Amino acid sequence: MENIIKGKAYVLGDNIDTDQIIPAEHLVYSTSDPEELKKYGHFALSSVPIEKAGLPEGRKTFIVGDNHQSEYSIIIGGSNFGCGSSREHAPLALQVAGTKIIVAESYARIFYRNSVDGGFLIPFEGNEKLNDKIKTGDELEVDLASNSLKNISSGKTYQLRPLGSVYDIVKSGGIFNYARENNMI
Amino acid sequence: MGMTITEKILARAARRSGVAPGESVWLDVDVLMTHDVCGPPTIAIWKKEFGEQAKVWDKKKLVIFPDHYIFTKNVHANRNVDILRQFASEYNLPNYYDVGTERYKGVCHLALAEEGYNVPGTVLFGTDSHTCTSGAFGMFSTGVGNTDAAFILGTGKIWEKIPESIKFTFNGKMPEYLTAKDLILQILGDITTDGATYRAMEFDGEAISGMNMLERMTLTNMAIEGGGMNGIIAVDDVTREYLKEIGVTDYQEFTSDPDAIYHSKYTYDVTKLEPTVAKPHSPDNRDKVKNVEGTKITKCYVGSCTGGKLTDFQFAAKILLGQKVKVTTHIVPASTQVAKQLEEETYKGISLKDIFVNAGCVIAESSCAACLGGPSDTIGRSVDGDVVVSTTNRNFPGRMGSKSSQVYLASPLTVAASAITGELTDPRKFL
Fold this sequence. Notes:
By secondary structure, chain A is of the alpha/beta class. Helices cover 23% and strands 17% of the residues of chain A. Chain A has a single domain, classed as Aconitase, domain 4 (Alpha-Beta Barrel), CATH 3.20.19.10.
């Protein structure tokens, strides 16, 4: 696990549900075929209403054109990120699109578990609401050793909540690696 | 110190004498359920992680219901069902309910109940957020992702954090204009879509005791819409009777101790509640039907694990008897058993099916269908500009198809009344 992760911010509102992250009609593609997998990246966040896509201005689509990767690799969300359907295709789609970290106010349980146990991305919780302080396109730097987020564009630094009991699973890269390292399987 | 029903059931599954909220424990899973959307990726992860030695931990405890994308020409969706079929045949799985055979059941959460997999006191995990439905049977049930399901598939185990519990008590006798759907929409308006995140939602009270199992399942089904980890109702005579009829006799009953500790408690008098809707685009955007009456609609939908059970159609038929619908109205029985019941069950001497056909409704085959949009040829899928009133569970942007459609969630009584007038209508007008 790298200690410093840098990337551009993509800012979203509250209650981003998994239907917005990856609409149900796209859940038909293979998750193991490398070519089909790209479809998940391509359709990531495609059901977010356009005026709420890339805050504060909106109208900034996460994926441009035929791409399956986004120029943004750190998502800043609000409360209850990933609510709704249990589809693990949601953190998978974000991972394929290049998302490394999400910093949200809070998460829905299943999305949070899926992100951690599947080793797709790191779901941090902020100590404060950040989706009204950071703008889409801001250059960010997350330091995993000190649990801090630096907004290079604005010069401000924010403290993140420690990952707590899931840290070991995140560090291992998912539940299977964790279980193997601990001789559980 | 006393324990809640959820804590007791999880303590049993963790082989512990007691557990407390916040603790992480490893659980022995009694049943793992999956379907055509999340089954194939679960199997792929299981094969990749366990390699050539991959073994299903207990074939009897694995249940697979293809139900999401069934009646479609989409080749990728059909390939997913083929993957399930091949997996079931390769590993000789006894509990696979194949499409196109007499074993096909339809929507997994109702099928789990009908086929006797909901056993009080046990823990059931499924690759679907509405797995919390099974909690109506005094058991712990919740949704997980594919990686967690693959882990269970190989080991029979899963880690969980013990949730705090919230208690919802419904006093009074249910008036004829209300259904369980109105009650859960009422709760969601109060607690919002994350008010129960990582918490158990426990339901009790006179109104719950008076409900049949199908209506109780509507309540536990939508626990996830409040962020709930599980919804749960303790076993009583109604549960025992249902289980006896389908031959489930060996189970353990748990109840919350009088001194159990709750995160919070909510008490309602059902006689004071009114028909309720969730307006676009969130299940917690609650209002009284009477406040939005007159809103023009383009489509009505009665179906899904939430609102496609026999009782939902009995409610709808009561209003639609002798009437004509003004907008396209889809009737989608959740399970093949319900589809059969529509032909057998009558209201005032007429079969429910005939009531719907005579009213001009479109009856579809059993599956999840347009509740979650689905492939472009899914029956009932919303299109641009649609205003749908539906008995389903979610109205997030794009959930039922087009992201420029609007969905109102309501009881089957409200949906039926609105179908007749072509606008949102309080069902009391027709009762």
